[in-house]
């Protein structure tokens, strides 16, 4: 057993070394205010192979924009917010977009909307790939903003087809104060508030959920609150059922010392292939520069890494790559104080892959996305040629793969497979069970879950070789 453990440790270390040796960062675009400014949210790769994102401010009216950018860096502004009187269409989008199964994108703005004259409240919107925007819901539609206000986190489309998200304020408090909510909204815009935080004195259930939710393999949602909890108001990790029953799994600052287990988790959790969740805290840890943590579905938390400032500070959301390791960014710290990109194994071995220096970007306030070509793509809030933020790619030597959208479904369900160079594909299989398919484009295959399929990886055979999905596809009963 000792030899086996050593082999596993060495294997993880070797993959870290190999990826480090091949890293190359390329600045794809520098924003100039007219096409947007402060792309704080990060990117999503769509079924057409391009990336879509938002800028918090800038654009035609100065209140943010939605953009499309190709893998080679050609950017198109699709929509500028505050195009309607009184910014009824919203202003200042913050969360990452999500592409739903209908092909449209959904997102939120944390200011604007039909119900606020002081720029607060926020909206949920839908936007087509060509740029037609529809405001689905304006927060503070209810007296006292009991339906929530200031949605900052990313939406997620659940297995039932509805979208789930959080608002940082509102609920049991007025919008200018804390609290916050968890909500469900249908693709057509019918909103249901599932939970209102701060239902008890001193908010032991958490307060102000800054990040979005992740739906776990068990069907429940997991998330974090930036503040609240049973200790020193340092934030929580929670579980919530699709019907709205919330359980607080962990309150930060629970360990001896001054918040050595972290404080203020703000990044969206990721459930790794081993079933555990991984996340970051913005501050706390031994050097007060933030942490990376692992937490089991039942709530046992392990601090994997404490940042020192020299290796980064204020870490953001994580993504698990095809090699099993986790990748993320820090908003600040590093050799130049402008933030870093890092890689960390599920057991906590961290390597700094890149240190921003301002010219190539500064202050990456969002997580990374691994594209189907194997590279990572992300944004920096500031820096670049004009100081208004950038879009970048990072190659660490990982190969191409395919991604199923969605990543779960019943037998017969329609599935889109996203990839690169899919033209000429000769077979598609779900955990070894062959499926019928149609090649829609070089980046998309349309298929259905075949009879007899079981949970496992999706594989596509192309003229260039066999591509395997980045995560297992779950066949639902």
Description:
With 477 residues, the protein is mainly beta. It folds into two domains: 24-395, Methylamine Dehydrogenase, Chain H; 403-475, Immunoglobulins (Immunoglobulin-like), CATH 2.60.40. It is built from one helix and 39 strands. The strands form ten sheets. Strands 6, 7, 8, 9 and 10 form a five-stranded antiparallel β-sheet that branches. A hairpin with a 2-residue loop joins β33 and β34 (433-435). It is globular, with a radius of gyration of 21 Å.
CATH class of the largest domain: Mainly Beta
N→C terminal distance:
37 Å
As a percent range, the share of strand residues is: 35-45%
Structural class assignment: mainly beta
Q: What does the overall shape look like?
A: globular
User: Major sheet, described briefly?
Assistant: 5 strands, antiparallel
CATH topology of the largest domain: Methylamine Dehydrogenase, Chain H
User: Could you list the spans in which at least 5 consecutive residues all have pLDDT below 50?
Assistant: 1-21
The CATH H-level homologous superfamily of the largest domain: YVTN repeat-like/Quinoprotein amine dehydrogenase
How many domain units? Answer: 2
Count the E strands: 39
**Based on the structure given, which CATH architecture of the largest domain is correct?**
7 Propeller
Q: What is the helix fraction of residues, given as a range?
A: under 10%
What's the pLDDT, averaged over the residues? 92
Give the structure's gist in a few sentences.
It contains one helix and 39 strands. By secondary structure, it is mainly beta.
């Amino acid at each position: 057993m000792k030899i086996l453990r050593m082999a596993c440790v060495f294997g993880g270390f070797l993959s870290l070394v190999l990826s480090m040796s091949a890293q190359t960062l390329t600045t794809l675009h520098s924003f100039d205010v007219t096409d947007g400014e402060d792309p704080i949210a990060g990117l999503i790769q769509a079924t057409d192979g391009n990336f879509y994102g938002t800028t918090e401010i800038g654009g035609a009216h100065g209140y943010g924009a939605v953009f499309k950018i190709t893998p080679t860096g050609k950017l198109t502004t699709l929509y500028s917010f505050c195009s309607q009187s009184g910014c009824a269409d919203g202003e200042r989008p913050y969360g990452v977009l999500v592409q739903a199964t209908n092909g449209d994108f959904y997102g939120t703005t944390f200011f604007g909307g039909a119900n606020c004259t002081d720029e607060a409240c926020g909206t949920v919107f839908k936007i087509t790939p060509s740029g037609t925007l529809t405001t689905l819901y304006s927060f503070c539609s209810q007296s006292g903003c009991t339906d929530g206000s200031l949605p900052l986190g990313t939406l997620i489309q659940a297995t039932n087809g509805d979208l789930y998200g959080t608002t940082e304020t509102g609920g049991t408090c007025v919008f200018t104060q804390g609290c916050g909510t968890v909500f469900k909204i249908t693709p057509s815009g019918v909103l249901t508030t599932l939970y209102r935080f701060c239902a008890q004195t001193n908010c032991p259930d958490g307060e102000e959920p800054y990040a979005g939710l992740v739906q776990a393999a068990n069907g429940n949602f997991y998330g974090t609150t930036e503040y609240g909890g049973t200790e020193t108001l340092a934030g929580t990790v929670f579980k919530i059922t699709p019907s709205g029953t919330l359980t607080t799994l962990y309150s930060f600052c629970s360990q001896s010392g001054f918040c050595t287990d972290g404080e203020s988790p703000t990044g969206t959790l990721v459930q790794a292939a081993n079933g555990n969740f991984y996340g970051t805290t913005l501050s706390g840890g031994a050097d007060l520069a933030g942490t990376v943590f692992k937490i089991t579905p039942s709530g046992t938390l392990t601090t994997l890494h404490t940042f020192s400032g020299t290796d980064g500070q204020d870490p953001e959301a994580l993504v698990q790559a095809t090699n099993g390791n986790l990748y993320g960014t820090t908003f600040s710290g590093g050799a130049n104080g402008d933030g870093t990109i890092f890689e960390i194994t599920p057991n906590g071995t961290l390597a700094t892959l890149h240190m921003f220096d301002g010219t190539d970007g500064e202050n990456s306030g969002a997580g990374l996305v691994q594209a189907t070509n194997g590279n990572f793509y992300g944004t920096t809030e500031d820096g670049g040629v004009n100081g208004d933020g950038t879009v970048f790619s990072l190659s660490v030597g990982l190969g191409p793969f395919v991604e199923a959208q969605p990543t779960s479904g019943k037998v017969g369900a329609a599935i889109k497979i996203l990839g690169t160079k899919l033209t000429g594909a000769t077979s598609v299989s779900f955990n070894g069970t062959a499926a019928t398919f149609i090649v829609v484009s070089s980046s998309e295959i349309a298929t259905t879950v075949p009879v007899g399929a079981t949970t496992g990886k999706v594989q596509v055979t192309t003229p260039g070789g066999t591509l395997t999905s980045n995560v297992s596809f779950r066949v639902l009963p």
